[in-house]
Design goal:
By secondary structure, the chain is of the alpha/beta class. It has one domain (about 5-230): Nucleoside phosphorylase domain (Rossmann fold, 3-Layer(aba) Sandwich), CATH 3.40.50. The protein has helices at about 10-20, 55-65, 125-140, 160-170, 175-185, 205-230; strands at about 5-10, 20-30, 30-40, 40-50, 70-80, 90-100, 120, 145-150, 170-175, 190-200. It has a 5-stranded mixed β-barrel, surrounded by 6 helices. Helix 2 (about 55-65) packs parallel to helix 5 (about 175-185) and helix 3 crosses helix 6 (about 205-230). The protein is globular, with a radius of gyration of 16 Å. The mean pLDDT is about 100. The structure holds adenine. Adenine binds near residues 174 and 198. Adenine binds next to strand 5, strand 9, strand 10 and helix 6. Its EC number is 3.2.2.9.
Length: about 230
């Protein structure tokens, strides 16, 4: 890859990249701030998309059109959906889907985008393997490859999170990944979503999110840093 887009939704999720990039050049498009520069000898374009699928989709298309990235890595935090996952653990997205896409009234299964070929957007094999390798080296295998469920909702209820697990087989839930994945798929650009768990998307999610977002962001950064070093 010649130029890699690195997206985080929030300040905490990109902070360590900001601190470690060199020869940076800043610019703005669609009110989104982009920082192009060098990171472990690779050219990256770092940006904070803002929260939610619309922000993530616009950011991804701008990264592709205006900055010419040829791969995209999303880094950040998520709520654990798979009950085996604990705070701090890492999910490497195998594919992602929009859990809040709901056209069930017309007979489409939950999460299905009507009239599209697919509603599940797969990550790139090579990027995924790099991430798994990073997880083995840095986190002693405490890494799960699984499905990322995205929606414009902060999930904070035991009933909802268990439904996301049983009905949609999610590993984790967040608010951007599937939008990035779909836009990448529409443009033929490889991507992967890396997420470390800040909470368990249950009744304590808001408290845990506040407490563990910085630590989980550091874990996700560590994986992506290792990936970029080994590219
Ligand atoms: N990001 C981190 N935790 C989350 C949750 N519980 N729901 C949605 N997005 C999240």
């Amino acid at each position: 890859y010649q130029k890699i887009g690195v997206i985080g939704a929030m300040k905490e999720e990109i902070e360590l990249f900001v601190q470690h990039m060199q020869q940076v050049r800043d610019s703005e498009k669609a009110k989104i701030h982009f920082r192009e520069g060098s990171f472990h000898g690779k050219t990256i374009v770092l940006c904070k998309s803002g929260v939610g699928k619309v922000n993530a989709a616009v950011t991804t298309q701008v990264l592709i059109d205006t900055y010419g990235v040829d791969a995209i890595i999303f880094t950040g935090v998520a709520g654990a959906v798979d009950p085996e996952l604990n705070v701090g653990d890492i999910v490497v997205g195998s594919e992602s889907m929009q859990h809040d896409m709901d056209v069930t009234a017309l007979g489409f299964p939950r999460g299905t985008i009507p009239y599209e070929e697919t509603s599940l957007f797969a990550s790139d094999n090579k990027l995924r393997e790099l991430a798994v390798h990073a997880g083995q080296e840095l986190f002693d295998g405490r890494v799960k490859v699984g499905r990322v469920l995205s929606g414009d909702q902060f999930i904070a209820s035991r009933e909802t999170v268990s439904r996301l697990y049983t009905e949609l087989q999610g590993a984790c839930t967040e608010m951007e990944g599937a939008a990035v994945a779909q836009v990448c798929s529409m443009n033929g650009i490889p991507h992967v979503v890396i997420r470390s768990m800040s909470d368990k998307a249950d009744g304590s999610a808001h408290v845990n999110f506040a407490e563990f977002t910085v630590q989980a962001s550091e874990n996700s950064y560590a994986i992506v840093e290792h990936m970029l070093k080994h590219l």
